[in-house]
């Protein structure tokens, strides 16, 4: 007798929803490593820095004290106070504890906000290039992503006039990621002031200010955020961040959001019925990270800046590739137009940046992120959050692979 289908009929909301491109690439890289290949992964959002020792010690101490039970859904009072102090220190923003929620990574903060607010036909303006999950989070929440291409000659940043042109009667949110994953573009206070001038004319539009990479900038101060630059927008801005990138705490899964109390309450309600609260041990570690000495942020930014400069120099020496050193994040956005149309040694034509990414993986044992999945072609995203020796070897492989194309 035939077995019934292994899963029930999928919801219509799953139409077009796929696993994140980053997770697919990571899985393929693991498969190749398991087969004995020496794979250099330049596609992930992981840093090669360790979590600071005092942060790990705080987690250990919390575990020994028995802080291993469920916490409040919205986070421990200690961590909420630490976030409150960090927002005041870094951005001169004041939030009450009822205006802050701790989440299982910043991704959850973004999704909870969209799920709590979007209805059918609501639109969310997303500048491109973008972090790929923004689009599917909007779709899963019932809304429609409106992608706004940002031209290279404006540094891949959204212009005020383009924002105005994208706004419709259905616009509910705009996403401002600063600095931008994947381009590393940094919105200056002047850039944000121009964007704010447009938004102030449209009082029904809210701002998702994603600052996950806010401390990985190369000018010495955290990336600015709209709620600080334009105080009149603060009541309709959700400021989102986390500890993954700044403190090399990717696997600890701690994010947070600060914004209007009514929105925060709705986000907490959603979280209470889905994941519930974040890890108690991770929250104790996060308190130590936020309340402790912040010297490590500048020290690591300086290391990343040196790696950025070296890798950009090497990539620009590869035939058909070009890039401009970014102002933030740890990614190079590499223009690969010069290899499009060429043939690999086995005769395959490189027609897209995805083809080029596949070629690099299969022939050079290097994993890069295709720009097609980031809203920008023909580009690839390459991480320089790797040891210098890895960067040098990766560049040699890239150079050989480019020279082998005809």
Could you characterize what this model shows?
A seven-stranded mixed beta sheet has the order 2-8-7-6-5-3-4, with helices on both faces. It has 406 residues and is α/β, with parallel strands linked by helices. The model has no long low-confidence stretch (mean pLDDT 95). The N and C termini lie far apart (56 Å). 39% of the residues lie in helices and 13% in strands. α8 (226-229) links the parallel β6 (206-210) and β7 (237-242).
Pick out its properties.
single chain; 406 residues; alpha/beta; seven-stranded mixed sheet; three-stranded antiparallel sheet; 13 helices; 39% helix
Uncertain segments of ≥5 residues (pLDDT<50)? none
Count of helical segments?
13
DSSP strand content: 5-15%
- Rg, alpha carbons: 22 Å
Number of extended strands: 12
Mean pLDDT: 95
The dominant shape is: globular
Distance between the termini: 56 Å
- Percent in helix: 25-40%
Order of helices and strands: HEHHEHEHEHEHEHEEHHHEHEEEH
Category from helices, strands and their pairing: alpha/beta
Q: Main beta sheet, described?
A: 7 strands, mixed
User: If strands are numbered along the chain, what order do they take across the biggest sheet?
Assistant: 2-8-7-6-5-3-4
């Amino acid at each position: 007798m035939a077995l019934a289908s292994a899963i029930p009929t999928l919801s219509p909301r799953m139409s077009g929803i796929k696993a994140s491109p980053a997770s697919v690439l990571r899985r393929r890289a693991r498969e190749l490593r398991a087969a004995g290949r020496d794979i250099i992964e330049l596609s992930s959002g992981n840093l090669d820095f360790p979590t600071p020792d005092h942060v790990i010690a705080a987690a250990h101490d919390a575990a020994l004290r028995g802080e291993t039970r469920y916490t409040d859904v919205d986070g421990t009072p200690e961590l909420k106070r630490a976030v409150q102090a960090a927002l005041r220190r870094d951005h001169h923003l004041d939030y009450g504890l009822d205006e802050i929620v701790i989440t299982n990574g910043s991704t959850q903060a973004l999704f909870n906000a969209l799920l709590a607010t979007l209805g059918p036909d609501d639109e969310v303006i997303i500048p491109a290039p973008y972090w790929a999950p923004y689009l599917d989070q909007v779709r899963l929440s019932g809304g429609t992503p409106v992608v706004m291409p940002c031209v290279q000659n404006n540094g891949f940043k959204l212009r005020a006039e383009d924002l105005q042109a994208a706004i419709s009667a259905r616009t509910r949110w705009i996403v401002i990621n600063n600095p931008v994953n994947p381009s590393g573009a940094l919105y200056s206070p002047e850039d944000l002031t121009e964007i704010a001038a447009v938004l102030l004319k449209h009082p029904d539009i809210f701002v998702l200010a994603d600052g996950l990479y806010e401390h990985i900038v190369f000018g010495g101060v955290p990336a600015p955020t709209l709620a600080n630059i334009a105080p009149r927008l603060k009541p309709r801005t959700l400021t989102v961040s986390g500890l993954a990138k700044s403190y090399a705490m990717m696997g600890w899964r701690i994010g947070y959001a600060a914004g209007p109390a009514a929105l925060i309450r709705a986000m907490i309600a959603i979280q209470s019925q889905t994941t519930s609260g974040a890890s108690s041990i991770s929250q104790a570690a996060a308190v130590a990270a936020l309340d402790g000495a912040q010297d490590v942020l500048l020290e690591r930014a300086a290391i990343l800046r040196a790696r950025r400069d070296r890798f950009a120099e090497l990539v620009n020496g590869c035939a058909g590739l070009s890039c401009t050193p970014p102002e933030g994040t740890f990614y190079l956005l590499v223009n690969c137009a010069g290899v499009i149309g060429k043939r690999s040694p086995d005769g395959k034509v490189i027609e897209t940046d995805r083809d080029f990414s596949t070629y690099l993986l299969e022939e050079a044992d290097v994993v890069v992120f295709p720009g097609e999945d980031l809203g920008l072609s023909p580009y690839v995203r390459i991480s320089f959050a790797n040891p210098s020796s890895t960067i040098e070897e990766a560049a040699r492989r890239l150079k050989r692979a480019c020279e082998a194309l005809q």
